[in-house]
Amino acid sequence: MQKNSTLPTAAVCLLGPLATPFDAGVWAGKVQALSQVATLSASARAECLKQIRESRAYQAMGFSWDQFCTQRIGITSSYAARLIQRLEQFGKPYFDLMEIVPISADNYRAIAPAVSDRGIEIDGEVVPLTAENAPRIRKAVESLRADLRRALDLRAHPTVTDLVSRFDAWFTDLHHQAGYRLDRDRQASLRGLTHYAINKLRELAATFPDPPR
């Protein structure tokens, strides 16, 4: 078993893939060295962790996955799992964007169609995810976040017009059912549904005060 557990520079740790299925010390060094690199290193750290976990190389060193993460890498296994999951879900562009502007996984999902290995699409132009483009990218992401917040707010607080459209769609679906030849049980169920809806609407109407005369 190779005992090399630390590589001196980030450049060395990027030289090549895992030498053997159980060369966990080398990969621990890769992750440790990469953790010291401030620029665009998160995706490489996640890839190293993914290789270690999938090969179970840590077992050759007498560690469980939890022990390996905490004792050799200095992070929790749950955090390592999140990094790997983000890598599998979103790929390298997610980590590149995170180096420029912090963004939650949910927000990233919403803007993911605009992000690729080439960069992020802003006003029809693909802008590379680089430090010199950081101010423009941050501004664009904040704008996308604002659009998302407005969409969520509209969903949570729909206008009367939105509610009318939803009600009309529901009523049309129910009305179409009346045009079919239905068995007695189905007819009874739909009749019960209409009476239920009428009673609910009456209850709701009673909560709104009459307009002043």
Structure, explained:
The radius of gyration is 28 Å and the shape is elongated. It folds into 3 domains: 10-90, no CATH class; 92-156, no CATH class; 160-207, no CATH class. It has a 3-stranded antiparallel β-sheet, with no helix packed on it. By secondary structure, it is mostly helical. The N and C termini lie far apart (90 Å). It has helices at 10-13, 24-34, 42-55, 65-73, 77-90, 92-100, 105-111, 134-156, 160-178, 184-207; strands at residues 115-116, 119-122, 125-127.
List keywords for this structure.
mainly alpha, 10 helices, elongated
The low-confidence runs, each spanning 5 or more residues with pLDDT under 50, are: 1-22, 36-40
Topology as a string of helices (H) and strands (E)? HHHHHHHEEEHHH
Coarse structural class? mainly alpha
Computed CA radius of gyration, to the nearest angstrom:
28 Å
Strand order of the largest sheet: 1-2-3
Overall pLDDT metric: 77
DSSP strand count: 3
Number of separate structural domains: 3
What quaternary form is this?
A: single chain
Percentage beta strand: under 5%
Separation, N- and C-terminal Cα atoms: 90 Å
- Level of helix content? 55-70%
Shape category: elongated
Q: What is the count of helical runs?
A: 10
Largest sheet: 3 strands, antiparallel
